């Protein structure tokens, strides 16, 4: 939203985006809470059965720690690199040039 203020968006647009972000954060937090609640119930049920078998705990841990590793393609890497160069180098430099701030542009290039 700070970039939206800098770009001089309407306040209603900024408020709408902020509300959407807050709703998204609450939605993600609710999903996380429900997952932890379910895991806690499973863990309590396994402990209440009176079995001291470590296989249950290790299986629960393995499920919790499972993740997938993805490898980006070469095209995606180049597109990501170009977008980052445009966002972090070209746009600020062009802003300095547009505002005729030569010293700021030269300082940014250095």
């Amino acid at each position: 939203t700070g970039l939206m203020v800098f770009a001089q968006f309407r306040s209603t647009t900024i408020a709408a985006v902020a509300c959407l972000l807050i709703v998204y954060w609450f939605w993600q937090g609710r999903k996380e809470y429900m997952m932890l609640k379910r895991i806690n119930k499973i863990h309590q049920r396994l402990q209440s059965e009176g079995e001291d078998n470590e296989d249950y705990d290790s299986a629960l841990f393995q499920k919790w720690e499972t993740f997938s590793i993805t490898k980006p393609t070469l095209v995606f890497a180049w597109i990501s690199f170009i977008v980052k160069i445009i966002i972090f180098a070209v746009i600020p430099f062009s802003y300095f040039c547009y505002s005729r701030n030569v010293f700021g542009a030269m300082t940014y290039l250095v």
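The mean pLDDT is 79. The radius of gyration is 25 Å.
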